[in-house]
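sanity check both lines:
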Amino acid sequence: MEKRSRVDLCFKGAKCFRIADIKESTMTESENAPLIEPSSLPGWIVHEDEHLLVVNKPGGIVCHPSKNGPWSSLAGAFREYLGVETLHLVHRLDRETSGLILMAKHRKAARITQMAFQNRQVEKSYIGILQGDLAEPVLVNRKLARDPESAVYVKQTVRNSNSAQAARTYFEPLSNSAGFTLVRIAPLTGRKHQIRAHAAWLGTPLVGDKIYGSDDRLYLEFIEYGWLPHMAEKLHLSRQALHALRLRFSAPEFNAEFDAPLPEDMREFCNRHDLHAAVTAHRAPSTGPDGTS
């Protein structure tokens, strides 16, 4: 059953609007998904062999097919580009999150890599920029559930309830400057919006996060009207400053490590605010996902 919400909102300056019967999928990713330019795809490829395709997804690109056709999603665009009928999306990232996405070219590779995620045999590392100062490393071990007080249906929050799921996220500050913190993040579980919700719970939401920042009504306004100039004052970046930097597999049938360099928008933000980070290069797999070297 599709989940729907009805929202009536007024913003300062007497600007009012209504978002009625908003589908959850519409509110999250599929609405107005931009079309991908085929010529850009080769530059996104981090690694490709007969089993796997690993890409560095830009922020703003949806992973799953949308109503706007194959060229509006990462999986659909690469299926068209490679001329294949099936490409298995092993995992996903939120639309505005950039970084590593792994796709399998056949069922066996999909099974092996998906089982690695399921069995927690994948070490995931992210780079994020927080709004606020995080002075020391911290492990957040707090359950997450849907936020019943938010007009944004998909929003999660730290709370105990029958539906709450255990979630653990490690934040390690790398650089602090001008009221911002560059962090390395390791999600130790894989819950919906886990990094974003835990960062907000710490009081240091991700820069550019329309849902978990200072006012989640910005997200609803963005869905209705798109990016508006006044949003820059609160968000500082047009998308959430979160990048999937590294995937390290240590499964019996698959041992590999991939890295994706920090995207230009986050590098520029770091330069403007005197934040510094080292970026590593990807390393090719030593064992194939079919168990061969």
Remarks:
- Helices lie at 24-30, 74-82, 107-118, 194-201, 217-225, 231-235, 264-272.
